[in-house]
Amino acid sequence: MPARRRLLAAAITAATCLAAQALSYATATASTASPTETVVSRGVQIPAFYTPPTTLPTTTPNGTVIRAEPLPLALSLPTLDGPLPGRATRLMYKSTDSNGAPVAVTGAYIEPTATWKGGSARPLVAVAPGTMGQGDQCAASMGLEHPLSLNGRTVSVGYEDVAIYRLLATGAAVVVTDYAGLGATDRLHTYVNRLDEAHAVLDAIRAARSLPGTSVTPTSRVGLFGYSQGGGATAAAAELQPDYAPDITLAGTYAGAPPADLTEVTKAIDGSELAGSLAWSLNGFLQSDPALKPIAEAHLNARGKAALTDLSTMCVGDALLGYAYTKSTKWTTDGKSLSDIVASTPALQSFLDTQRIGTLTPPSPIRIATGVNDNLVPHPQARQLAADWCEKGANITYRPVLVPNVISPLLNHVTPLLADQGNAVSWLKARLSGVPATSNCGTLPLLP
Fold it and tell me: Which fold has domain 3-262+354-446?
């Protein structure tokens, strides 16, 4: 069997794990961190690697590797040319959070066995994972080692392995970030915080470039790849790159179903299968901006506060069965929804405004794809991001994904990912091969 086919077969095996997300039920267990304690999250012992140093020097350059070790890939096939899809390294690297403070971020780099045939040096793709959850056991780098982790208290599914393996099959090297606080045990994951996520993505590139013994060179083209939470992270990284990482030149960015306007996304998620992600957002925002805590204290009832604590250690599968279809009106003292509270609270409106993606002009080409019936990360706000960037003169390829409405918001969100992923990989491969992108901003008004 050709090496490429064997690699894709391994990726298909990983894809079967995606369905397992609906099989879990979990009960709360606190996840805390200190340099001398073993961290356990919902019965999963987090490897000591993921506990950051007690201090990080502010003068250390962003992207500096704090530590690294070999990472065994669960889905790997031996060949005469080396293991497929490649050899992986677990990473911890330094980044900067939204408050300008140093933060340790974990992730993984995979040196592919497949040959790059796109000309020039082997390129590097930074993968920004979609929603994994907020428990440290949910980190994407752990998903490479344990694609399905099931212990009766939590289910962690490494569904991003599929996209990672498809990219490795092209011959591109891949670095994946876990984001701030996901995996790393010193803080909560700051879910959908555009600055934290963008910085983590860009600094993962710097970390991968600095690793010894890889085939990535200073001339390697660089791309970004992400869907859903990952699409928001890559979109934010692309527009923040000139200011935060001028040393990085991006050949292209894929931003699938980006949550660019969190005000609209909050309305859509409330009461859906993934309602638990509202707690992940709140937990992260309260950590990033403690000034918001008195507002939360005033509006959240005991049930709401308990939900935030419970969900802080959950993965996606846990949240689906534990909190699917929950309405935020059950979490508030006055029965108002979180969206209504945001609308009537200027401080919350202002904070969400700072999270808006599309206010800056990205200098590199971006492909935005969004399902026309996506009502979880709503199609209109993702399309508006394309329109905002087109108006600023950016090189945008906008692709509406035409799949039928299947009633379920979660399936309306996931189906475009599966339907479009091959096209997204092909588009990014072309950019990494030096083929110029052609903007379709001129025809965007005619597209759904």
Answer: Rossmann fold (3.40.50)
Residue 192 burial (CB count, 10 A): 24
| DSSP-assigned letter for residue 225 | E
Mean pLDDT, contiguous 10-residue spans, the chain (448 residues): 40 35 26 58 95 92 97 89 92 97 98 94 98 97 94 92 97 98 97 98 98 95 98 98 98 98 98 98 96 96 98 96 96 97 94 96 98 98 98 98 96 97 98 98 98
Distance CA 388, CA 383 (A): 9
Measured over the CA atoms of residue 415, residue 420, residue 425 and residue 427, the dihedral's sign is negative
Contact yes or no for 156/149 (Cβ under 8 A): yes
Which DSSP category does 126 fall into?
Answer: E
Rg over alpha carbons for the chain, rounded to the nearest Å, is 20
Q: Are 89 and 109 in contact (CB under 8 A)?
A: yes
Q: Where are the domains of the chain?
A: 3-262+354-446, 263-353
3-262+354-446 and 263-353 share one CATH topology?
A: no
**Class of the CATH domain delimited by 263-353:** mainly alpha
CA dihedral 239, 104, 43, 90 (to 10 degrees): 90
